[in-house]
Design brief:
The protein has 119 residues and is of the alpha+beta class. The chain is built from four helices and three strands; from the N terminus they run αααββαβ. The chain has two domains: 34 residues; 73 residues, GMP Synthetase, Chain A, domain 3 (2-Layer Sandwich).
């Protein structure tokens, strides 16, 4: 026991630094883990529904559409709105093709579909 106490006394500063570094690294790990948690404001590909992913695949294959992002809003299992943002949305024919494809694919009224041009 005396050897341990002598070791602690002799290396007191080193032990304190190691303990503080361990605490700091642990705190950073837990803070970083919390920051990576998904929130309502951040949407990743993993959070997209299968329906949204399929729709992105369909739309990106339509001539003139280009890069596409889709968000489908649902309430009680019913689609209440669809937002589409894509490169080709500034072309009237492409926009019409997008509206027709989404309306048909989701069996919804075109009135609840919003199409915007991606910058």
């Amino acid at each position: 026991m005396k050897k341990v106490l002598d070791f602690v006394k002799a290396n007191k500063k080193i032990i304190i630094v190691v303990a503080l570094l361990t605490i700091l690294l642990s705190a950073l790990f837990f803070i970083n883990k919390g920051a990576n948690s998904p929130t309502a404001a951040t949407v990743t590909t993993q959070e997209k529904s299968q329906r949204e992913l399929k729709l992105i695949g369909i739309l990106s294959n339509i001539e003139g559409v280009g890069t596409t992002d889709v968000m489908i809003n649902e309430s009680d299992g019913e689609i209440t709105g669809v937002v589409i943002v894509c490169k080709g949305a500034d072309n009237i024919m492409t926009r019409s093709n997008i509206l027709n494809a989404v309306s048909t694919a989701l069996d919804i009224d075109k009135k609840i579909i919003a199409v915007y041009s991606m910058n």
